[in-house]
Amino acid sequence: MQLLWLLVGIIIGAIATGACWFSWSYAKKRRDRKFRKRSRHALKARSILSLKSWAQNVQQNIRQKHNNQFAEINSSTNDENERLLWKKIVELAPIGYIQVDQDNRFAVCNQLAANIMGIMNHQQGLIRKQFLLQLIRSYELDYLVEQTRSQKQGSQVDWVFHPAIPDPVNPVPQIGRPIRAYSVYLEDGKVGIFLVDRQEAVAITQQRDRWTSDIAHELKTPLTSIRLIAETLEPRVDPAAKIWVDRLLGEIDRITKLVQDLLELGQMDDGIETILHLSEVNLSLLVRSVWSTLEPLANRKQVKINYIGDQQLTWQLDESRIYRLLLNLLDNSIKHSPSLQSITIKISVVDSSLQIDVIDAGEGFPEEALPHIFERFYQIDPSRTRSGLNRGGSGLGLAIARQIVTLHKGTISAKNHPETSGAWITIIIPS
Predict the structure, then answer these.
(1) Where are the alpha helices (DSSP H) in 238-282?
(2) What is the distance of C-alpha 335 from the center of its chain?
(3) Number of other CB atoms surrounding residue 168 within 10 Å
């Protein structure tokens, strides 16, 4: 009986175990089916997302590629338009323009520049990219380009351009053309040059100077006659009226000096007596001689002279012209110096050149007047000075001084002294 119940228990246990295993197996299979189904949905969704992303990337790449192409087309079109516009502006400009690249080869040249520089076929030169010196034989222009490129800033030069002889076998004299060139530094070593033909301006200036000289010649004779008449009448007039005769003689002297200055400038311009009579001149003795002439004028204002320099210094100079130069400078300094002041004249040798500095303690030059004070008939506006006084003068003294220095192949410059605030004239004459 016990054996029977044991057998029934084993059977029931086996049935229960089978049922559990079946239930577990069924549940596992069902779970696996759900997982696979869910995985397939997830994979499908992921594939769809990947496909969409890929499509979007392809679309974006295509759009970017086309946009870049369109941008390049638009950019090239704008650059081409700007290039054509710039070319049109250069051709229509009322001034000559030349541009060279970093190798000094022609890049731009308008027709006006070709006419000024005598280039027969500048378009051919632009096509062949010829060098600057191949088309324009000008040392001044080539030096201007190199200077602009090395300093990376614009400059200016004036010179007389002499075109090359086209046929050396049958040479024809070429007329020089005065030209002014302005340079501008461009990127990557490129240089642009603006050219101005100054032939007409120089001709007008020469005509004006010639007219002035002719008028001076015509005035010289009647002024001499008027002075003789005034001197004859001077002892015969009443003492009360003698002051008017003295004033008349003073005005005649002033006009005579003006005429003489004009004649001297005219002679320098025309090349008359331009040969300098050079000799060893003692500068200290020359300054004393000039000051002795001006001493009566200096004593009225109690102005003294302060000479700084070697007492034995000599230089090869045209003594009469340098005398006139110092006379003009010291005369101006006395007129513009306050009372009880001193005028300093310093003479030294700097870099094998003679340097003369004339410094006073007057009101100095207005800054806007500095570029013009050596021009003829230029007079400083009294309202632009501290004193507000008109000191007179013809405006020719400094012009004559510049002419004399130029004849000696020197330079003259003007500025205001930082300590005295007065005029500071510097003259440099090479040996």
Answers:
(1) 242-270
(2) 34
(3) 7
Q: Which of 143, 222, 124 is nearest to 181 (CA)?
A: 143
Angstrom distance (rounded) from CA 253 to CA 333:
21
Angle (CA) 75-76-82 rounded to 5° is 90
**pTM of the complete model:** 0.52
Under 8 Å CB-to-CB from 312, ≥6 apart: which residues? 282, 284
Q: Poorest-confidence range of 125-129, 406-410, 415-419?
A: 125-129
CATH of 278-430, one of 3.20.20.70, 3.30.565.10, 3.40.50.2000, 1.20.140.10: 3.30.565.10
Buried b / exposed e over 375-399, threshold 16 CB at 10 Å, is ebeeebeeeebeeeeeeebbbbbbb
**Where are the extended beta strands (E) located within 88-187?**
96-100, 106-109, 156-161, 177-185
Q: What are phi and psi of 131, to 5 degrees?
A: -75, 160
How many other C-beta atoms lie within 10 A of the C-beta of residue 153? 11
Q: What is the pLDDT of residues 338-359, one digit of tens each?
A: 988 999 999 999 999 999 999 9
CB 158 within 8 A of CB 175: no
pLDDT digits (tens, 9 = 90+) for 161-171: 887 666 656 66
Tokens 């000024």, residue located: 116
At a CB cut-off of 8 Å and minimum separation 6, what does 391 contact? 335, 336
Rounded CA-CA distance 82/150 in Å is 29
CATH number of this structure's domain 96-163+175-197? 3.30.450.20
Multiple choice CATH, 201-270, 3.40.50.720, 2.40.30.170, 3.30.420.40, 1.10.287.130:
1.10.287.130
Both tokens assigned to 55? 């499509």
Q: What is the mean pLDDT of residues 184-212?
A: 84
